[in-house]
From TrEMBL:
InterPro entries: MnmA-like, MnmA-like_C, MnmA-like_central, MnmA-like_central_sf, Rossmann-like_a/b/a_fold. The record marks H126, Q330 as: Interaction with tRNA. It comes from the Bacteria. Belongs to the MnmA/TRMU family. One of its GO terms (molecular function) is tRNA binding. Residues 203-268 form the tRNA-specific 2-thiouridylase MnmA-like central domain. One of its GO terms (biological process) is tRNA wobble position uridine thiolation. It is found in: Cytoplasm. NCBIfam families: PRK00143.1 (NF001138), trmU (TIGR00420). The active site is at C101 (nucleophile), C193 (cysteine persulfide intermediate). It comes from Candidatus Protofrankia datiscae. This is tRNA-specific 2-thiouridylase MnmA. Catalyzes the 2-thiolation of uridine at the wobble position (U34) of tRNA, leading to the formation of s(2)U34. It catalyses: S-sulfanyl-L-cysteinyl-[protein] + uridine(34) in tRNA + AH2 + ATP = 2-thiouridine(34) in tRNA + L-cysteinyl-[protein] + A + AMP + diphosphate + H(+).
Amino acid sequence: MRVLAAMSGGVDSAVAAARAVDAGHDVTGVHLALSKSPDSHRTGARGCCTVEDARDARRAADVLGIPFYVWDLADRFEHDVIDEFVAAYEAGRTPNPCVRCNERIKFAAVLERALALGFDAVVTGHHAQLSGAVLRRSVDPGKDQSYVLGTLRPDQLAHAIFPLGDTTKTEVRAEAARRGLAVADKPDSHDICFIADGDTGRWLRDRLGTQPGPVVDAATGETLAEHDGAFAFTIGQRRGLRLGRPAPDGRPRYVLDISPVTRTVTVGPAEALDVSHLVADRAVWPYEGPVVCAAQVRAHGRAVPAIAEGVGDELRVTLDEPLRGTAPGQAVVLYDGDRVLGGGHVIRLGR
């Protein structure tokens, strides 16, 4: 097959491209330039999309002997990922930009362009297994990325290749070293790639300005503190509330609710975070009637037993045991064992 290897400049994508070459495919490497200011998007192991990353990707392509190009998708990334991230926080939701990037950039913009150029598939370094259009967890649970791919459509997965799903990260690095790839020991990027210093609150404040409001106790309605932007809080947050005094029972308080209209942040005890029902939209769910499954709402969170059913345009999930700290905006991905059944984006919660 003629395949396009998305090469981020990291070790996973380099080894994935190498394996595609070994498999006999006609491979072309491409690096996605997603940042309008590439020099500002890496601090140590944080972030990505720098000039350094582009050079690392090119060096890897040279070692593999494959053609290499850079595609500038910065405008689309800004619109589809960053702008939506800001809008979601401003609306009181907690988005996952990695899920959105996979949906709209890697397996929409890139795949669409690849197919238009005559490529048969896109190869990436995601740690997940794929058989046809059936997505499964990686054999390395600590690096499994099936969650961030869990809302891709079957037609997108049909044109994807994930060569690393049967390999642990330790084995990937050892293989990169054997192949002479300079990125073998390169640190993984982590946190949100476009927030290089990891300070999401400050990053949002720079874009949204100061929007003061009260922090209110759920039990008493008492105003405990003032904040300068509800967007800087997330459901389930405990640290950084700056309430000034403990709860009467001495127990810690957590963010229970964020109201962007009134700019009110409501706090209370941990048990008030328990959620037993989720409703999601933008769902990929091809099944009729209720389906017994397991639901996961964080990239490396635990999956809990559940029953899911598509109702109109919504995906409704009833959990056998409560999940704590779930928030609108997160993705819910549903599994049968290690097999991904589908998923959607949480819009409502029930307790």
